């Protein structure tokens, strides 16, 4: 793993990558787990209870990945629609497994109350290689905009388009890991020919709200539910979490649409990006999955109990 004292092993410092550097980077990405075994087999088991939508296919050289969303069987257009996404960054494991666990354990509790659509693994190539980027060294979670360079992002936007303006809730499940500092941020700096500036990984769960349309009570309802499962990240000495001011316990804000983030793809009034910290000695994989599940349930419950904000 690169460190702050040595340059990233691909490319020339200060020079953005070209096709040769991307090809070198890609050659080093080794499949470490199976999308078919970990995700598609679970989806197949859920098929008896839910509808499945194949919303795209990624054809990546020798790798072909069908993209699936799980959908309420009792879908009714007059009901509020809830979107849950996981695995936009494939290496963020609890986002994928938390989404699947939510469907298996809780989705039927909302039958007849909301329309649910869950895309549990948006970026399967990266899931298998435990990486942030797709095959082309593109970050899907900075690519949710027209003419997206990431086919994963483009496919999800096509799926969401018919109900984009009718969605009530969107929860996008993520993790912040120690590897963000040891690998992914140094790689990003090298790819873009920029200097690497070390950051600090927060110890605990936090949320990202939309700075353009903040919903502080909604975010705090999620934080309260998750705090029963795992610890909430404190602010650092500057009062920040990953470089952004903490606006409430465990909450920061980003301009979601401006940054091309997944949580911007609907006009849902209630939206949040979760960030679990799986590398904490105080958290187990089971807790991380459960925290994601608790966040989704709290988000839906809050939206059902309150009128839609204007």
Automatic annotation (TrEMBL):
InterPro entries: AstE_AspA_cat, Peptidase_M14. Residues 31-310 form the Peptidase M14 domain. CDD domains: M14_REP34-like. Gene3D superfamilies: Zn peptidases. SUPFAM superfamilies: Zn-dependent exopeptidases. Its cofactor is Zn(2+). The keyword rRNA-binding does not apply. Signal peptide: none annotated. Keywords: Hydrolase, Metal-binding, Zinc. It comes from the Bacteria. Belongs to the peptidase M14 family. This is M14 family metallocarboxypeptidase. It comes from Rhodanobacter ginsengisoli. The lineage of its organism: Bacteria, Pseudomonadati, Pseudomonadota, Gammaproteobacteria, Lysobacterales.
